[in-house]
Amino acid sequence: MTHKTHDSHDHAHAAGCGHSSLQHDDHTDYLHDGHMHHGHDGHFDEHELAASSQNPADCGDGHDCAAHESAHRHASGCGHQAVPHAGHLDYVVGGHLHNQHGAHCDDHGAVKVS
Predict the structure, then answer these.
(1) 19: in domain
(2) Which among 36, 60, 86, 111 is least buried, having the fewest CB atoms inside 10 angstroms?
(3) How far is it, in rounded angstroms, from Cα 42 to Cα 12?
């Protein structure tokens, strides 16, 4: 099976390692710096959430979210955890994924990050 790996990764992800974890399919991935890593067989795979009915990737024409100011824009360094999702980065806000889409945010569904 061919899969994308993260080379030169010295950190060992595990419970309590300091990175947020996300339940993904039948395993746990660890989030950092816009990456979602799953360790197995002596290396780390680069994972991303697929578009699904639970986590859609389409434009919903925005949504109201009380978890941040309406002028807030999601991007690297915005203060929210980034999650790779269906070919782009979403940001975890209030237990769901936000995707910055022009002047509005799309709700890309619920996630459980710990």
Answers:
(1) yes
(2) 60
(3) 10
pTM, 2 dp: 0.81
Reading the block at residue 39, the tokens are 């360790």
Q: Answer for the pair 48, 82: CB distance below 8 angstroms, yes or no.
A: no
Assigned domain for 97 exists: no
Range of the domain at 35: 5-46
DSSP 94: T
CA 99 – CA 69 distance, rounded (Å): 15
Buried b (16+ CB within 10 A) or exposed e, 32-41: beebbbbbee
Q: Alpha carbon of 88 to those of 36, 43, 55: distances in Å?
A: 12, 23, 13
Q: Over the stretch 59-114, which tens digit does the pLDDT of each residue have?
A: 876 677 777 787 888 888 999 999 999 999 999 998 999 998 888 888 999 999 98
